Amino acid sequence: MKKQYKGSYLSYMTFYFFAYFAMAAFTCVLPVYLTDIGKTAGEMSFIVSASSCFSLALGPLIGYLCDRTQRPRLISCLLMAGMGGSAMAFAFFRETWALFLLQGAAMSFFGAAQPVSEQLAANAPYRYGVLRIWGTFGYALGAQAAGLTIQIFPGPVLFSVAALTSALAAAGVAAMGGQGMPGGQRERTAGEKRLPLAFFLHNPAFLLYILISFLVMGCSGVNNTYLPLLLQDFGVSMGKVGTVLSVGTLVEVPVILFSNKFMDRFSSKTLLMTITGIFTLQYLLYAVASGPWGVIIPLILLKAIATTLLMMLNLKVVRNLVMSNLVTVALSIVNACNGLGSIFLQNAGGAFADRFPLQTLYTALTGLALLTLLLSLFLRVEDREKVFA
Fold first, then answer.
1. CA atoms of 140 and 17, how far apart (whole Å)
2. For the chain, what is the largest distance between any 2 Cα atoms, rounded to a whole number of angstroms?
3. Which of 20, 30, 199, 339 could be a cystine partner for 135, CB 3.0 to 4.6 Å?
């Protein structure tokens, strides 16, 4: 039975479902928990930005280790176990610096595992969409569970749930077949072996994409932090906030399931302009909303779709911009730069939210999202490789 489970579809499903469940349980209502224990908007943004600080170092290091050792499943297993331990410890501290360190550890472990898991899904014997879809279901149920848990039980119970599901995700990734990354041991050309990491600094398209992703994901991080609080300002209970986030996540199911139908058909530039346009429209609607439904409707229809498309586009753009032996490193560099954007924008957003209404903050996010849309006009990617077929 153990042999049948190893490398099976069920092992991939277990990993994606419980990894994203754990992430949702830990992050979805974290701003509410921090507010409930007396943290200001500035302190909350400081704590939430920790994962980005940690990811600046951990992300590229993990990408390098995966490419160097060809043991991505073992490394991912250790990362998910580390996330679970950090989430469990988070429940026992109230000091801002301790929460900063533990939040940073927990989410940077997950963030470092994410590009590895995307590579594993893209190279698995199953189609990307039918694997990654379980992450959507896991996140949706995790968001709902988080909202109900924090409403009914003491806060520490929430982090116990995150720790348990992280352990299950670690068990799933440990069973996902052999250790090496599929295709990772192919014979490389002499040019690829000598290729320095400085290659990234001489690739203008890659640098422009990093800048756009830096701004987009930084704004998205601020949105994830303050959206539950915006709903609370409109009188929505935490149980209902969890339900809204859960339903909003399920909207991405057809996007992921049918990714093979459109992700390779449209150019990277067209997809990026569409994504940045969706982000711009989303923030604008939040900024002008006059009641809870003005927030709930765009949240359900736009939020998860934009984030999911960008996550998949990361894989498509990177695999078409860099050499095959640097893909995991490049994905980790993109994630680290996204983290840098989150550091700046989370803390700037916290300072802004301490002085102005939340909808004014969303007006500022609309301006930044519009800037990313304009920058997308200049991206040039030669889409040679089929990633989602």
1. 10
2. 62
3. 20
Dihedral sign of CA atoms 101, 226, 113, 203 in order: negative
Write the single-letter amino acid at 379. Answer: L
The secondary element (H helix, E strand) that includes residue 139 is: helix 128-152
Residue holding tokens 């990234």? 200
User: Looking up tokens 């301790």, which residue turns up?
Assistant: 98
Amino acid at the residue 338? N
Compute CA distances 363 → 279, 289, 306, 348, 357, whole Å. 12, 11, 18, 14, 10
Residues 143-173 pLDDT 10s: 888 888 888 888 788 899 999 999 999 888 8
How many Å apart are CA 175 and CA 178, to the nearest integer?
8
Q: Which stretches of the chain drop beneath a pLDDT of 70?
A: 1-7, 121-122, 177-201, 324-325, 328, 389
Residues 218, 301: Cα–Cα separation, whole Å: 21
Start-to-end C-alpha separation, the chain: 31
Please give the model's pTM, rounded to 2 decimal places: 0.71
